[in-house]
Amino acid sequence: MYGKMQRWVKRLLPLYLFTFLPSTLSAQIGEYRNEFAVGVNGGVAFSSIDFMPEVPQSKLFGKTGGITLRYTGEKYFNSICAIVGEVNYTQMGWQERIWDSEDQPVINDETGLAEEYKRVVDYIQVPVFARLGWGRERRGFQFFFQAGPQLGFYLNEKAVYNFDLDHPSWYYRTSHISGPDIEQDGKIYKFSNMYHMPIENKLDYGIVAGFGLEFSRPKIGHFLIEGRFYYGLGNVYGSSKRDYFAKSDYQTIFVKASYLFDVVKSKNPKIK
């Protein structure tokens, strides 16, 4: 069911963007606006990578923040139409769930601790949104929906782990991409190749969409809180028949807060 929903989102969102974005920029049928606001945003990112073959994971906690630009051009019926762009620093990646065949944490033979591994990848992300809002623009609350493409430019990466990557204590990890099995003391050990694989594709791209709530006050500005979902369309590793993974794209949930202040405001007494 979840896979079918992802495929529908992947098909319908680009159609929505190509249809809505040009009309937002050019149409002047509704009440004209010429408003420009700038500000800052910050929040958290909960990311994972959809690997095929599967790699068991939990969401990786990362930070995100940057600058926001917003141009509001029109109110069409009850919908406030705007274009939003951001430039953000974001931490993404994945955190493995290293469990045995009985769904228990794997205890390392040398350290006596449950094995942990995560890969943190730093990006500069540039999302561009088509935005629809409903409610007050200058005094009060406004609910909004926004969606659009996002590009991510790789900066660097680091691995965080608590065991020797060449001597893990995994056993019966049949779902993990790995090297040859080694039997020792009645256990089947599986040694991973991916721990030594840096990110191959430095450009990440996909579709991001979300809902939020904005509170505005004259002479103070706009306060926003929102949740977003990012669906990556590009693989971080090669996906040819010679590569380890057939699929390796990001899936990330963002929770963000923003503050914007007006630089240009329309002189329209109808705007409330």
Mind sketching the topology for me?
Blueprint: H1 2-26, E1 31-52, E2 57-58, E3 60-76, E4 79-96, E5 117-135, E6 140-161, E7 181-184, E8 187-190, E9 203-217, E10 221-232, E11 247-264
Antiparallel strand pairs: 1-3, 1-11, 2-4, 3-4, 4-5, 5-6, 6-9, 7-8, 9-10, 10-11
Care to give the gist of this entry?
The protein has one helix spanning 2-26, and strands at 31-52, 57-58, 60-76, 79-96, 117-135, 140-161, 181-184, 187-190, 203-217, 221-232, 247-264. With 272 residues, the chain is mainly beta. The longest helix is centred in the first third of the chain and has 25 residues, at 2-26.
Describe the overall structure.
It is a single chain. With 272 residues, the chain is mainly β. 9% of the residues lie in helices and 56% in strands. The chain has one helix spanning 2-26; strands at 31-52, 57-58, 60-76, 79-96, 117-135, 140-161, 181-184, 187-190, 203-217, 221-232, 247-264. The strands form two sheets. Strands 1-3-4-5-6-9-10-11 form an eight-stranded antiparallel β-barrel. Strand 3 (60-76) and strand 4 form a beta hairpin. The longest helix is centred in the N-terminal third of the chain and has 25 residues, at 2-26. Residues 1-5, 23-28 and 171-191 have low confidence and may be disordered.
